[in-house]
Every structure is written in structure tokens, then in C-alpha cells.
Fold this sequence. Notes:
The structure is a homodimer. Chain A has helices at residues 16-22, 32-49, 62-71, 87-98, 116-125, 147-155, 176-180, 205-213, 223-231, 241-257, 259-280, 304-315, 341-357, 366-379, and strands at residues 5-6, 55-59, 79-84, 102-107, 131-135, 137-138, 143-144, 160-164, 183-187, 198-203, 293-297, 317-318, 320-321, 330-334. By secondary structure, chain A is α/β, with parallel strands linked by helices. In chain A, the strands form 4 sheets. In chain A, strands 2-10-9-8-5-3-4 form a 7-stranded mixed β-sheet, sandwiched between helices. The two termini of chain A are 38 Å apart. The model of chain A has no long low-confidence stretch (mean pLDDT 97).
Amino acid sequence: MKKKYLFTPGPTPIPSEALLAMAQPIDYHRSEDAVALIKDVLEKLKHVFQTENDVLFLTSSGTGAMDGAVSNLLSQGDTVLVIRSGKFGERWSEICTAYGVNIIPIDVEWGNSVDPEKVDHQLKSNPSIKAVYSTLCETSTGALHDIQSLAHITQSTSTLLVVDAVSALGADDLQMDKWGVDVVVSCSQKGLMTPPGLAFVGLNSRAWDAVEQSNLPKYYFDFRKAHKSGLEGSVPYTPAITLLNALQCALNRIYEEGIQNNIARHQQMALATRSAIKAIGLPLFASSPANTLTSIRLPKEIDGKAFVKMMREEYGITYAGGQGELSGKIVRIAHLGWMDENDVIVAISSFERGMAEIGYDIAYGAGVAAAQQVFTTQDSQ
Amino acid sequence: MKKKYLFTPGPTPIPSEALLAMAQPIDYHRSEDAVALIKDVLEKLKHVFQTENDVLFLTSSGTGAMDGAVSNLLSQGDTVLVIRSGKFGERWSEICTAYGVNIIPIDVEWGNSVDPEKVDHQLKSNPSIKAVYSTLCETSTGALHDIQSLAHITQSTSTLLVVDAVSALGADDLQMDKWGVDVVVSCSQKGLMTPPGLAFVGLNSRAWDAVEQSNLPKYYFDFRKAHKSGLEGSVPYTPAITLLNALQCALNRIYEEGIQNNIARHQQMALATRSAIKAIGLPLFASSPANTLTSIRLPKEIDGKAFVKMMREEYGITYAGGQGELSGKIVRIAHLGWMDENDVIVAISSFERGMAEIGYDIAYGAGVAAAQQVFTTQDSQ
């Protein structure tokens, strides 16, 4: 009898009431109950997005919403700036390229965050740049970009700021309206504690103006149709209704905790994890780490892929390994969504035991003690 | 205490083991278990598609796969033939138009099925037509198109036949390989007894050749990526894993029953329903009705929208009303997916009671008796 723990940056654990909501007999998606469900979910998403703008939803994974955030905002021949500091920044440029959009990349060493001055410089040199595409947390490295500063730059120009907040929404702060972020994209299976299959997009009026002018082809991901239907609690196409039921349960939790408290909880879990990793004696991979997940650079002699495999098979603990060029070199531990202090303790304790098992010289409990210290200090504040 | 019955042509009822599968703690979509799950599901889908070709899946509703069946197969400037006999035929032409593809429509009166000779004539006049887009069952009318005859025509040409089998797969026969259908599109929430959120596409080698030549933009719905990943039990993007778990349970049922037996069961339910409606004295709407659902033309004095609303609120019975120009004029009763003879009896009996309540002169039990007769005759064969 071994309990399983999921510490990947998506999917994340689902609260029991959300799991059970999906096991209810299915209902027609155009019933009055479904209309009320859709309206309620879209209203509560605004709280999570920290916006008064409407949020729309799509039945797809987060990449579907990213696809739509290119095809709905841009036109053929447009030029955009893409911040590439990992796999998901690269995805923005792949999507733009697929649609024939010109990209100016700002390549940032993996693990680092973009220097906002470089973005400012590019926009001043190329005022015709239509949009800046960035990530909030680059999930492949665990690095957080300074979206507030980027929005400060784009706000005074005609350039849109489009943010992939797929993994970080609810964990790292993103004040869409207050900061002036034009488009925010996210999905269900990360901070929103719901299984994968739903994606969300918030757009402000500047973004909707761009949508009206866009001439790239789109049908299923047409934001105008999703937006218009959503206002009436409806959908252009059959939605993933069981996932909407789960989402409603999960959003109720965030709504009751309050988005800022929700983010503060994530910040505390991230602080504790980083403190533990430092106490264990390993370097963090990201220079400005996100609340969403912690990336740990492994000693060169350790095979990260084998470590992740062993942890899953022997300990029932699923961490994420490195992607792309980081394969085998880092371990990523998410503290995301339906998690609390004791989940972090389990993640750290298991990490210590696993590292000891593969021969790393480790003092049992050093990381756990550091995490306990953070939680105790925070709790007594 | 009132039980609810869902007789809409999607979503359809979900078997309990599939509901409970979704309530299990979520797992990582790149785990060994997930790889085995994806491989198993894709293998069993081939049985349902009656093909030896690979089937790929997408996290979206069926319309997402239709979108992909345009953007992956065609190029700018291509001309296609679209059979429009209802809302879903029209959707094909809307998608083609969104992508700048030229369409030659074959408009068929709603309720009727296309005359294959008209398709043959068009292809002979315009041999450069790249593809014919059709539906198997036009869900908005309940009419079945003769896909076998259409495939017989396209097979000897270089024109592809692309079939929207969204609602009818598993209920109406579609022998992809034997008939020579090039592309079949379907989704989870109809005959496949799974909640909405997954879509499927089967393509033969002629279709893959077209994919290689296509220059329309696509990213999320890129069939090549989904296909290549699927062969390894993987995915390009996080899939709706809870829905895959449910799908596996549902596919096991079809696999055990066998696809032809599954279709025969639907045929029997459809025969019984049509026989019942005739006994009640109402006309069927479709000239060649599908096994998927039965559309009933209501007497002019009856407000179909009010009838459907009353049935849901007072009887807990959800039928579908008419869409578009048929709004208020027809009622659609699906006998689709996880249903058996007694579900049909409930659908008919409730229809009789509802019609009596709104003042239609009806002999209680006439429709039920006709359905019983069909089932008894069939069972004793």
C-alpha cells in the first residue's frame, strides 16, 4: 500500500469534490443548468485573472489557446517580438512561424529571465512591432519573467503584451488590469486544480481591437465566437462539460481563499522548497524562480532521467525531469494548485531519500528542517 | 425523486465504470501507464473506425477535428465540394471559407440525403476538385448520407472523401477501409459514450499524401504531430487524460460487443423508434433516417421549443429540439451510445405522455407497442 504523489507542473492533483463532480451523470450542455454553470465559471475566472474584462474558455489544452492568441490577434506580414527562454517561449515562435508571422526573437539563456530593457530597446527600434509574446513562468526552467515591467513598457505603445500564464496562473501574481497586460492565456490543469482539457483567455479592449483587424484564418479557436457565446452562458461547440463541473469546484476554492491569499500560499511553498534545496546543498536552476515550481540543477554525476524514474517506481513520487537540452540535468518540483505545507514536506523528504539512495552525500532532514523553518516563521507572522 | 434521461445526440449517457474512472486521482500524462493507455485507446479506435490505418486523437470537440481536416488536407486556392443538407454540412463550408478555400456547394433540402449522381457529375465536370466534404449522419436533421456510394465514386478519382462521422460513428455503419473513405472525423461524446473533449481522425495513405502537400497554417491541430506522437503512446500537448480513462472503459464495451453488433443494436433501437413514431401518427423528418437519432416533424400547432422545455422540466427527459431553420418544428430523439431497448421504451412512452399533455390526440401505448413488437421480432430471429 503506497500513496502516490504528483509533483509535476501539470497535471496537478484534483480536489476530491472536483473528482466526484466528474463522476455525476452527464447533462446536456445547452440546459439551463449548463448555462448557469458556464456563467458562474466565467465570472470566477475573472477573479483569478484579476480583471474586469471578460474571460473566454475553449475546449483544448493550453497550446490551443496559444494558437488562438496568434491567429486571432495578428495578420499576415505582422512582426512580433518573442521572448524565448525555454520550451514554452519557443512554442510562441513556432506558432507564429506556422501562421507566417515575422518574429524578432529575444533569446534568453535557459534559467534566466528577460531583461525588460532589452524589450524596451527593441520596441523603440521597431515601433511597428504588433505584439510581445512572453511567458509568466517558463515551465521548462522554472524562471519567472517580470511581466509587470514588460506591461509598463508596452502600455505606452501600440504594441500588445500577450502572456502565457499556462502554468503560473493562481501561483504567481499577474494583475492583468492593474499592470495593463493585454492578453493572458491559461488552462485548467495547473494552478486551477482541474484535469486538462480546458483553456482560458482574457483580453482587454486593446486586444479586442486587434482581433477585429486580424486576417489570419481561424475557426474552432475564433475568440469572437467563444466570447459572444460565453456572455450568454453558451458555447459555439460542445464543451468539455465534465471538466467545467470540476472547474467550478476548484474555482470555488480559489474564490473563497481569495486570489491574493492563494498566491501567498504558493509563495510560501516555493520559499520553503528553495530553502530546503539550498540546505541540501544543491543549486537552484532559475535565477528568478517562480512560485509555480522549483528547478534543481543536479550534480553532473547524477542521471536525472534515472532519478525521476526511480522516484516514481520506488517511492510513488512523480517529479518532472528536464525538457529539451535540460533532459537529465534538472529536476522540477511543482508546488502548484491543490497543495499545502505537508505536500512540500513530502516532496522534500522524498527528494532527500532518493538522493541518498543514488549515492549523493546527504544529511537526512536538512532540507525538511529548512522548509519547516520557513513555514513556522510564516505562520507566526 | 425523479430519474433523468438524456436523449440528445451528444452528450450521451456515460457508463458508470467510465464515470468512476474519471474520479480516480489524476496521473502524469507522460507516465508509463499513460503511454499504455494511449496505445490501447488508439488501437481500439481502429476497430471502431473499421480501419487498419492509424487513428489520431486531439483534445477538442469534434469541430476542432473538422477544422484540422481542412487545414491539414488543403492548400490555398484549392477547390472542394461540400454537401450541405443541414447545420453540420454548413459547418464544413464555413471552415473551408475561413481558410480561404473555394467551395462548390451541393445544397440538399434539409431532411434529405445527397444524390450520389450529383457528386459524380460535379467531379466529372471539375476533376481538379481536391476533396468532397460530407457528413455520415447530418445530426441537425437525422438524415443519413450514402457514404459507401460516395466512396465508390471518389475512389477512382484523385479526389479525397472526408466524412464527418461525429454523431454516427458506432451507430451507423462506416467501413473506412472496405468502402475506401479517405478521412473520417469523430469525437467522444456520441456513440463512444465518453464525455465531450476528445476528437478522433482516421486518415488513409491518400489522405496522408495530401497532408504532406498542404500549405494551410496549423499548429495545435497539426495531424502529423498528433499521429507521430500517438504511435509512441505520447502526445504533443497535455491531453484530456481523465477523458482518455473514460474512453478506455467505453471502448472496451464496444470492443467486446464488436463494432458490427454495436451497429446492429443501434439499428434495432432506430427501427423501434421509427415504428413507434409512425404508430403515434407523426411523420419522420428524414427521408433516409440514420440509426443515430430519429427526427420527428411536429404538427404545426405544436410549439416544439415549449415541448422540449416541458419534457425536461416536468418529466426529466431531455430530447433535442430543432436547430437553425428547424427550431421549434422538429424533435430529435437520439438512441445512441450506452442505450438499450428499455431506454427506447422510456423515450417513446415519455413522448406519448408529453404529446398528450400538450393536447395532441394520442392513443396511449400505441408507440410503445410498436417498439415492443420490433424488439420482440428482432430478439426471436
